[in-house]
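Quick one: co-fold with glutamic acid.
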Amino acid sequence: MTDAPRVRFAPSPTGELHVGNARTALFNWLFARHTRGRLILRIEDTDESRSALSYQTSLMDDLKWLGLSWDEGPDAGGGCGPYRQSERLEIYAGYLKKLIDAELVYPCYCTEEELEEERRSLILSKRMPRYMGRCRSLTPDQRKAREASGRKPSWRFKVPQTTVEFTDLIRGPMRFEGEAMGDFIVVRSNGMPAYNFAVVIDDSLMAITHVIRGEDHLSNTALQIMLYRALGFEPPVFAHHCLILGRDHAKLSKRHGSVAVGEFRRRGFLPEALLNYLGLLGSSFADAKEVLSRDEMVAAFSLERASKSGAVFDEDKLSWLNALYIRNLHVDDLVERLRPFLREAGYAEEKIDQRRLGEIVAAVQGELVTFAGIGGHIDLFFDDRYVLTPEARAVLASDRARQVISSFKEYLEKASGAPREIYIAAMQYTREKSGAKGRDLFLPVRAALTGRLSGPELDRVFAILGPASARERLERLTL
Ligand code: GLU
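Sure, here it is.
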């Protein structure tokens, strides 16, 4: 094995990929790519009641959509598999046996109700709720009696009364007192390993050198370091990044709006923009640039630089970035990416003349913030979707507007040539004939041709519609 760093992203498939987790994945990916290390994807699916295969699929799908590739994982293979915890149960059982033999764990027969009762009374007496060790010193006979009554034990680790110290790559020196921690469960009564136990075994056997995860795992790290010692493993380096917060500075959750990567995807955000934005949150880049490609992020990434305090998720800023990325797309690429959204908006996009579709998309490119709602931008180009909004109707209601429209129509009746030239000449003719200029001239023409008061440049709209269709729209106007 080489000395290259090995990091992992270890999601629990209990829901859609959250932007917070996606950011953890991004940090691990950036670190792996920056250091020419390897990224391992491990699925932590030992909580059978909450894990679902569909979430595994969607997690992996969202990671791929973001462009976060892994070098080893359930579908990628690698020498340290299997990479799903549910397929590693025998491995955990082997290590539990070691701990039992070394008398570093003991069976606990407490019921949920008993534990809850203990918790409540500790809180009432203003002490920290934790397991107080009721089953730690049961005699063999007492254990037998409990088993005879049908109780299945969980296994608890005997927490040593020592101090755990480690240096976090982002947070610096950390210190936890063993005294403040209760003996914790390593294997549940149903035989499944608890998170802290499985993670230590997996991170060790998968030769993980750096564990990069959210600061909500800091206290777990202290427990995990105890297990590393008990199992005779060398702990990796830890880096706990800050969490993403909502605008109210509470941990980002559904009540703040969209939080799942899938939601942003369905709303028509670009993966490049979302990734760039997640990278900027609690910035970990060497310079102050805000718009960074994936390669630039890889080059500029530094864990040590990552902020310690929470980063506020600002959807307006993400939208700003998204609009910018959309503007910078080549129009052919934009058309391809828009296709599913066009279908969703009811367009049989494959039946539209593709050159025309390209022109339409190019005309609205600068207006788009996301892809959702694309219909609202392009409907005006399609006769069966063109409608006069009440605002447009109001603009067209004045005598002067009627005059503008009738002059414009008059010119179109006899015009021939290239659409753009026809438009310029028609405007000139209308200006002279009606005496209207500026807004009084442009707004009625825009209102009549597009049904709306704002949109792409009029000459462009006219060129795409073509003189015949423009004329027909004016003729059909009932004002
Ligand atoms: N499955 C854990 C989670 O999703 C992983 C935490 C860790 O990275 O150790 O929170």
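If it helps, The chain has a mean pLDDT of 95.
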